TrEMBL record:
<feature type="signal peptide">
    <location>
        <begin position="1"/>
        <end position="20"/>
    </location>
</feature>
<dbReference type="GO" id="GO:0010143">
    <property type="term" value="P:cutin biosynthetic process"/>
</dbReference>
<dbReference type="GO" id="GO:0016020">
    <property type="term" value="C:membrane"/>
</dbReference>
<comment type="similarity">
    <text>Belongs to the GPAT/DAPAT family.</text>
</comment>
<keyword id="KW-0732">Signal</keyword>
<dbReference type="InterPro" id="IPR056462">
    <property type="entry name" value="HAD_RAM2/GPAT1-8"/>
</dbReference>
<keyword id="KW-1133">Transmembrane helix</keyword>
<keyword id="KW-0812">Transmembrane</keyword>
<keyword id="KW-0012">Acyltransferase</keyword>
<dbReference type="InterPro" id="IPR002123">
    <property type="entry name" value="Plipid/glycerol_acylTrfase"/>
</dbReference>
<keyword id="KW-0472">Membrane</keyword>
<feature type="domain" description="Phospholipid/glycerol acyltransferase">
    <location>
        <begin position="343"/>
        <end position="444"/>
    </location>
</feature>
<keyword id="KW-0808">Transferase</keyword>
<dbReference type="GO" id="GO:0016791">
    <property type="term" value="F:phosphatase activity"/>
</dbReference>
<dbReference type="Pfam" id="PF01553">
    <property type="entry name" value="Acyltransferase"/>
</dbReference>
<feature type="transmembrane region" description="Helical">
    <location>
        <begin position="85"/>
        <end position="112"/>
    </location>
</feature>
<dbReference type="Pfam" id="PF23270">
    <property type="entry name" value="HAD_RAM2_N"/>
</dbReference>
Amino acid sequence: MVFQMVLLKFADWILYQLLANSCYRAARKMRSYGFFLKNQSLKSSQQQAPSFPNVFKCGLENRGSDILACDIHGGLLRTESFFPYFMLVAFEGGSILRAFLLLLSCPILWVLDYELKLRAMIFITFCGLRLTDMENVSRAVLPKFYLENLHLKAFEVLASTGSRFAFTSVPRVMVEGFLKEYLLFDNVKGTELHTVGHYFTGLVSDSGLVLKHRALKDYFGDKKPDIGLGSSSLHDHLFISLCKEAYVVSRDDGMSGTSSVMPRDKYPKPLVFHDGRLAFLPTPLATLSMFMWLPIGVFLAFFRLFVGIHLPYKLALFLGIWSGLDLRVKGCSPSRSGHRKGVLYVCTHRTLLDPVFLSTSLGQPLTAVTYSLSRMSEIIAPIKTVRLTRDRKQDGRTMQRLLSEGDLVVCPEGTTCREPYLLRFSSLFAELANEMVPVAMNTRVSMFYGTTASGLKCLDPIFFLMNPRPSYHIQILEKLPRELTCAGGRSSCEVANYIQRKLADTLGFECTTLTRKDKYMMLAGNEGIVQDKREKSQSIGK
């Protein structure tokens, strides 16, 4: 019943506002634009927006007690468009169908005015979306893209102030988490959305869209913020004119010779974990390219899977590279010392395919141990996989038995990490073998990430192989000297930490003490344990 009422309201809104008012306004826009082309010099002299200095001219000294007011779009980010962030919510929080619908709406959105465009995007993105899905996207997906698009000088001005307040017309749930957690904003005023139960209706609440200049007046009253940051649009000029000092953050700041790109080492908080499938900022053109690639990508993914599972190593390697796979291998298989035990390969963990690519590169069968692997991934794996139990003694016995049968691959981090960081290494592997070979692995993708914390793990290999040119770089290091192993008098923790530092130096990564539990508690709100049906039934029976 509630859904029917929402649908009726939206239909009424489309008929009387979207079609009638928008078409009229679009016609007037086109007419005025044509007149502008004919009378450009006259129009520019009659209607010229107030001029504010560029943000690069803002001094940073003695700002500790200043109050800053800004909008994240146009004020802190290098691009003003908020479409990519709605697309991220639609794709990662909703579905690929919702994302496709948002993409199809682009031609209509182009002719709408600011308010109707925003309302239409809100409805398409949020109608029927669960509150928990939006929370997950806000926490685990959006911060990466916001950080990468931060304007360097605007951030420096922000960091120099004592109090920070954001006023934005986009939904508050999309920006508040990032602004408060990463940029330490005191308060965020954004558009509130209507909800029913645990779902968004796609409609704006009774308070309507936030008008930034009015919201600033209502919040501060007669008091003026010290600094205002905004874009070069007339909407933002009205907003920042209410501040004592106003500065414009324009997109062509790079022409001044000073880069506005935010380097990773200046992030306000290290970006170690993030989730979601999209590896690019989904602008309209980039999203269109993705949907055009999807049929080809799905075919390529299954072709590469078939090749890797059923064909011999050399032929699989040849066809994989022929299909666009970028595989680079340094080093070679280590020499054998004559012991009955196999070699233990200690790898960094980038995707579930790490042991598979190592096995293919070496041209020999390997056994991989894992803590939580979906049943589908176990079935399609071209190498032997053994699931561990998280019981240290039992897992130690299992790995000892596997080493007596042949070579073994272990990823001591226990989970994947996308960014240039290594998680804490579990020390169990160091107690089991004296012949250990560190393997530095790194991957690069351009369209889809092949890992997830909250999505379907069985699709991880498929998403990775759907990339136009997925890249795997493998560097096999020298075998660990005996004096650096437990047999040489070192503790298991010392051995694990040494190998972690060695691999980090090889890859140019940074070592951390973060664990698998830290990752999943942050991104998915759980410990990331995948139970099979038998384990679930036993736990329910208890």
